[in-house]
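Tokens as discussed.
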């Protein structure tokens, strides 16, 4: 079982500031525990409660002593939030080792029962943070009275992404096939790409191009989602498809293709729409999701996943506009980052909620209401060209690399618009609307499991 601690950007900044300080710092980190369908454990960080200055009995560069009033109030907050309370402290200084000292281990033993009792959960966690030239180093674990697991990874999400592995775990050597990648962005980023759990929602022209590029970059853990079968008209755009594949599920066609590229890939297929609740729950295994679906209802699910489970989503869209007679007039592409604290697709007006509702209706009911003027008629088959779906897919995968390597402008924008017919592109940013679920003040970031799931209604 892999255990991942997911930390949103606003908390990650506090941690970076703390490890850069001259003295040790202590805090209680509150996190919601979520067991993904695969059995992997994800800890969704909700808040940080730093020890007040007057609660330090001793505070040096290599030692802390803290009075109980420095952490007990945070345990009450953990109980109120139904969160796991984790003791976190820093080892300051550039290139400091995050390995727990003997004293740290004694403190863990003393705190574990108190934290579990006062927070009302079965779990206690501990994390030691350090850094090297600004890069996070950590050791950590989570334990109950009967079992204990290492925290294997910390996934820092927001406008930038950072994946750090437990300092005590040995990292595998990188294959020679990635030599050119490593020359471009280094071995650490290559390891991150290889370790990321990636979901691709939609395996048509855009999704198949995204998936192939990810695998050639080194991604080895992919889950593919699509409910459709390959049609003859898909052959002009879907990567890895052949005439003999017509009638097969798109996810199977794409998975077979990816396995030919990388036989060691772990590719899981889900032949279902993510508007089905059981299917949507499968997304909880992902570190990052590429949204390559053209339905509005599916995009609403992805938009909520980004907030409730701190899972960044890179959402793609391609729109070709043709005049009567078939003259191509407009070639528009969009790549939008949905991350904790950024505006969702509704705030950005990138989703038509009335169409989303219509997409979830039974076909007969939708036709009846459309005829009566109570529901929008859904569009027919839209034009699509492989050159433009591939262009947007490449931009989406490039966004992932930019967020990992941090080579772009600061602050990093959250949306890229491509106007290929004008040979122009532009970037923009937008903050969440007040009182909307994606706004930090709504207290939905990292909320995790709710009843109903994602606090929305689902089809039976």
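Sequence:
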């Amino acid at each position: 079982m892999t255990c991942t601690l997911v930390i949103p950007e606003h908390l990650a900044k506090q941690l970076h500031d703390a490890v850069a300080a001259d003295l040790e710092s202590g805090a209680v980190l509150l996190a919601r525990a979520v067991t993904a369908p695969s059995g992997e454990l994800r800890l969704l960080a909700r808040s940080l409660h730093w020890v007040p200055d007057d609660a330090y009995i001793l505070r040096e560069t290599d030692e802390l002593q803290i009075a109980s009033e420095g952490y007990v109030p945070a345990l009450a907050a953990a109980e109120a939030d139904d969160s796991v309370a984790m003791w976190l402290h820093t080892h300051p200084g550039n290139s400091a080792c995050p390995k727990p000292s003997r004293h740290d281990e004694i403190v863990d033993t003393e705190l574990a029962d108190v934290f579990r009792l006062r927070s009302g959960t079965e779990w206690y966690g501990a994390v030691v943070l350090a850094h090297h030239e600004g890069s996070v180093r950590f050791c950590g674990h989570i334990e109950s009275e009967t079992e204990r697991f290492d925290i294997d990874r910390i996934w820092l999400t927001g406008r930038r992404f950072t994946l750090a592995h437990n300092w005590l775990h040995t990292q595998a050597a990188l294959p020679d096939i990635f030599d050119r990648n490593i020359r471009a962005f280094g071995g650490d980023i290559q390891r991150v790409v290889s370790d990321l759990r990636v979901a691709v929602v939609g395996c048509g022209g855009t999704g198949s191009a995204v998936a192939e590029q990810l695998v050639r970059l080194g991604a080895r853990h992919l889950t593919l989602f699509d409910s459709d079968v390959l049609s003859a008209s898909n052959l002009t755009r879907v990567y890895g498809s052949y005439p003999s594949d017509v009638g097969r599920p798109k996810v199977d066609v794409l998975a077979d293709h990816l396995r030919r590229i990388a036989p060691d890939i772990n590719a899981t297929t889900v032949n279902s729409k993510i508007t089905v609740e059981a299917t949507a729950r499968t997304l909880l295994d992902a570190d990052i999701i590429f949204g390559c679906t053209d339905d509005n209802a599916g995009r609403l699910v992805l938009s909520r996943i980004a907030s409730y489970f701190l899972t960044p989503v890179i959402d793609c869209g391609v729109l070709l506009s043709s005049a009567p007679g078939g003259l191509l007039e407009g070639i528009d592409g969009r790549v939008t980052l949905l991350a904790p604290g950024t505006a969702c697709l509704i705030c950005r007006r990138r989703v038509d909620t009335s169409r989303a509702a219509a997409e979830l209706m039974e076909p007969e009911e939708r036709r009846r209401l459309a005829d009566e003027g109570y529901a929008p008629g859904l569009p027919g088959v839209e034009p699509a060209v492989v050159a433009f779906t591939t262009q947007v897919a490449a931009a989406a995968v490039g966004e992932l690399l930019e967020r990992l390597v941090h080579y772009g402008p600061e602050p990093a924008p959250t949306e890229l618009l491509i106007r290929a017919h004008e040979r122009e592109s532009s970037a923009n940013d937008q903050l969440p609307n007040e009182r909307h679920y994606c706004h930090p003040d709504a207290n939905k970031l990292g909320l995790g499991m709710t009843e109903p799931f994602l606090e929305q209604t689902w089809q039976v």
